[in-house]
Amino acid sequence: MTTTIVGGGNMGEALLAGLLAGGATAEITVVEPAPARAEYLRSRYDVTVTSLAEAVPKAETLLITVKPYHFTALLDELASLVTPGQLIVSAVGGTPTSSIEARLPGEPVVVRSMPNLPVSVGAGTIAISAGRYAGAADLDRVKTLLAPLGRVVAVQESQLDTVTALSGGGPAYFALLAEAMIDAGVLAGLPRPLSAELVLATAAGSGRMLGEPDADPAQLRAAVCSPGGTTITAIQELESSAFRAAVMAAVVAARDRSLEMGR
């Protein structure tokens, strides 16, 4: 049976790349209406890119990755195409499973998910939550499908807006920090290529350390901060600018935006 990714934008491509790299055994098709984007996906990944009407009736699983402002119109189209028993996995931010179920016929099996962009390299974090008509076996199917993409965790749907703000947007926060650090290196006199090389290698190494079992960010920070040294001085400067408070406020603001979108 076929897994159909509906939406070939950044997240759709990331999921496609991760599934193919992870050795996906099911046939994967993509629905992408923009001709140039569709041709790009065909040529780069050697997959079938087709229409919604062609793909949906053949699919065992629909993995929906469109933007929230396109979702209502898409659901109206899907209402006449979906069949009983199809597994519908939504990766659309800020859209509750109840809103999806209300627009589809019968008792649709819907699982809401929140992947992040590192799924493209098999290092993503994906939170999933079952809708009203999805059971434990359906969650297991989704876990099996998405396992090659990284860490899959089941959460309550009420937690998904916070997950969206935290791990969904997390890669952008880390990228912004890396970008600022690169600029800081340039400001302090390093050539930009060297500054970028150092910062990105440091980010990759720190990520590996933090990915170890029982890793503790506070302990890693403390291990680098020698008494009276350069790093603790830098930490003091960040804290004087309310660094942690700014990060916390940003995540809460993103959570609130996700809730607003859901309403």
Secondary-structure topology with pairs:
Blueprint: E1 2-6, H1 10-21, E2 27-31, H2 35-45, E3 48-50, H3 52-55, E4 59-64, H4 68-78, E5 87-90, H5 97-103, E6 109-114, E7 124-130, H6 136-146, E8 150-154, H7 160-168, H8 170-187, H9 192-210, H10 217-224, H11 230-240, H12 243-262
Q: Can you tell me about this structure?
A:
The protein has an eight-stranded mixed β-sheet with strand order 3-2-1-4-5-6-7-8, sandwiched between helices. Helix 7 crosses helix 12 and helix 8 runs antiparallel to helix 9. It is 54% helix and 16% strand. By secondary structure, the protein is α/β, with parallel strands linked by helices. Helix 6 links the parallel strand 7 and strand 8.
Q: Gap between N and C termini, in Å? A: 35 Å
The biggest beta sheet is recorded as:
8 strands, mixed
The total domain count is 2
What is the C-level CATH assignment of the largest domain? Alpha Beta
* CATH architecture label of the largest domain: 3-Layer(aba) Sandwich
Q: Shape, please?
A: elongated
Order of helices and strands: EHEHEHEHEHEEHEHHHHHH
Radius of gyration, in angstroms, nearest whole number = 21 Å
The helical percent reads 40-55%
Number of strands: 8
CATH superfamily of the largest domain: NAD(P)-binding Rossmann-like Domain
**Can you list the strand order of the major beta sheet?**
3-2-1-4-5-6-7-8
Structural class based on helices, strands and sheet pairing: alpha/beta
Strand content: 15-25%
Q: How would you classify the quaternary structure?
A: single chain
CATH topology of the largest domain: Rossmann fold
User: Uncertain spans, ≥5 residues at pLDDT below 50?
Assistant: none
Total DSSP helices: 12
Instruction: Indicate the mean pLDDT.
Output: 94
